[in-house]
């Protein structure tokens, strides 16, 4: 857990690294700062996303008693994919700044792809736990992690739909979708009642 | 706590990343290094600020017995805002270097804004704990976190006043204020007596 | 362990920092993203490598009861070398992008060198534990860490062979080798059965 | 401890961030890599230094039973100063690359200054513990931390002497001194016998 916690903490803090003093002409700092709004939005959205992932991760691990090699790899799969999140976030912020519509479509497609792969990593993680009830705490219902799988699958579909809408309709539709999926994950998440 | 500790440790260390070998002509390193004094001051001030936050955070968590979902989100709100601190710090250092007074006003206003929002995040955190005494340790007085709220509120007002003084009078007035608020928070902070 | 965990978590996450929005002409983001494939491959290979190292590290430390000064230094030797891994990874990605065959040979030789030194650091670590059975848990067979030494030695030889093949035959041969060594280490690794 | 561990782990890993693919003409990567030797030396020296600091820090904290506010601040003083170490390290590597003797003198003076301040931070830390024996474990001799003070003071003097020698004689003399001080600290350090 210390390792997973550290990885998620680093990724969530790296997002803030995107925020730098803008290259502004002397006396035009205010305009330059206001013009960076896509970066602020991207920071907020991805911070929210990673915060929800951390809560889900914590909720899962309070129910896990021990880890075998397979679960270690499933967990490493989640960590590898979530470490990618700052990258499409930065790409979206960059294209929003330059404003080319083709590039914005590519950027939201990339974000949708990473989001969808992350959902698949969660699906693999939940499926592994559903097949290995001996790894979970005694008080956890054996069907608990089996019931978590549809949430990951729905997230996967939602990211693909948002990405497709971004390409076919308008990138902004995708961006709204990217904000809504973490909300869905957060609302349907199970609680962590202990420190 | 491991997660919060990691986030604060990363943010505090990222500040030091601002310190880089200056772009100096050959033989003029000394002048270049001395000319970077606003960056050193900004490093010192923000390090002090984040150190005080860490102590306050630790002081609060030694009094918390368990976390529910609401407290998790209140804590994530604090972490999200404090991760922003290196950004206005770098903006102030940058404008102090270029020396445009309009930009310096914008920079201190941005710092005041982030500082004020951080105080609001603490206010939300303390208020949540004041309304949920069941989350605190038995030996903690039920009114303890209710009494912490005015400290956050005063910090909020102080940041707004410092920012306004920076815009209306002179940015240096704001900078002095930014150094004093953490001192206020540090002096009024409650102790953490155990490791 | 908290310190080692933090170092490995930081190194593994720094890899993802290599992924940045590409410098693309307006409207050519897709081509630019697709052209970055060597970076993606390098991310995947080094993530896999560091993940295997983390599992091996964890597997070793579940068998260690206490650390003396010598074991501390052997562990710091491993951490120092693995912190280097993102560097030759970035050099390989860079040369794959420019496509000069001489540079690609130098890059794979550098990667092979770092990989081989890392195997030596593991060899020193395992040898120290083999000579100090008093540092391991009682239930651990005294010959356990002696039997781990050949794995490190074989890794060392494999990196040198892969590097030599990269110089004498073709850099791609080395790259395939770099992907296979972590797989060898992963497959022959001992389990960590508890959280 | 988790917080201190995280800060030291981040600083030690940031050093490796200095290592980047060099800006080389196509086909001249090998020369460019070999020409970066001052950076490699600086990485090695500062890694060694921070590793010794970590061991000393761990050795001190295994003897500490509880922390009060004063000890927290003394510890934060050490962390703030050691987070600076990568900065003069990078400045020395940079001046060794450009080769201007005046700049090299400034660079070693800066390194000596940071090293000396770090020793003062340790001196304050040890002095605080010497005056508060109630904070240490029962089995720790009351004079233990008083006896640690001369080590910090000698380190302080050694850094000033090395810096002065670098300015008056030659920067290389200072660099050799910077490599020797951590060795002195490492050799005279007290053990940490438990995990």
Description:
The structure is a homotetramer of 195-residue chains. Chain A has helices at residues 2-17, 29-34, 37-61, 69-82, 86-98, 101-131, 144-168, 171-187. The first copy, chain A, is an all-alpha fold and 195 residues long. Chain A has one domain (2-187). The model of chain A has no long low-confidence stretch (mean pLDDT 85). Chains in contact: A-B, A-C, B-D, C-D. The B-D interface holds B 1-2, 5-6, 8-10, 12-13, 15-17, 19-21, 24, 26-30, 33, 47, 51, 54-55, 189, 191-195 and D 1-3, 6-7, 10-11, 14, 64-69, 72-73, 76, 79-80, 83-84, 86-87, 90-91, 94-95, 98, 100, 102-103, 106-107, 110.
Concise account of the structure shown:
The structure is a homotetramer of 195-residue chains. Chain A is mostly helical.
| Radius of gyration of chain A, taken over Cα atoms and rounded to an integer in Å | 18 Å
Biggest contact: A-B, 32 and 35 residues
Major sheet description of chain A? none
Residue share in helix of chain A: over 70%
What's the multimeric state?
Answer: homotetramer
Mean pLDDT level of chain A: 85
Q: Which of globular, elongated, flat, extended, rod-shaped describes the shape of chain A?
A: elongated
- Residue runs with pLDDT of under 50 for 5 or more positions of chain A: none
How many distinct folded domains of chain A? 1
Number of strands of chain A: 0
- Fraction of residues in β-strands of chain A: under 5%
* Overall SS class of chain A: mainly alpha
């Amino acid at each position: 857990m210390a390792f997973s916690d550290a990885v998620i903490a680093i990724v969530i803090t790296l997002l803030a690294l995107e925020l730098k003093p803008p290259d502004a002409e002397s006396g035009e700092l205010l305009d330059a700062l206001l013009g960076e709004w896509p970066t602020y939005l991207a920071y907020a959205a991805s911070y929210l996303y990673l915060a929800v992932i951390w809560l889900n991760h914590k909720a899962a691990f309070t129910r896990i008693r021990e880890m075998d090699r397979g679960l270690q790899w499933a967990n490493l799969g989640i960590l590898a994919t979530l470490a990618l999140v700052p990258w499409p976030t930065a790409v979206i912020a960059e294209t929003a700044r330059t404003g080319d519509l083709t590039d914005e479509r590519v950027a939201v497609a990339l974000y949708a792809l990473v989001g969808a792969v992350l959902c698949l990593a969660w699906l693999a993680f939940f499926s592994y736990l559903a097949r290995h009830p001996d790894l979970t705490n005694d008080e956890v219902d054996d069907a608990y992690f089996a019931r978590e799988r549809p949430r990951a699958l729905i997230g996967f579909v939602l990211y693909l739909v948002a990405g497709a809408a971004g390409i076919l309709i308008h990138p902004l539709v995708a961006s709204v979708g990217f904000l809504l999926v973490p909300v869905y994950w957060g609302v349907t998440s199970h609680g962590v009642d202990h420190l």
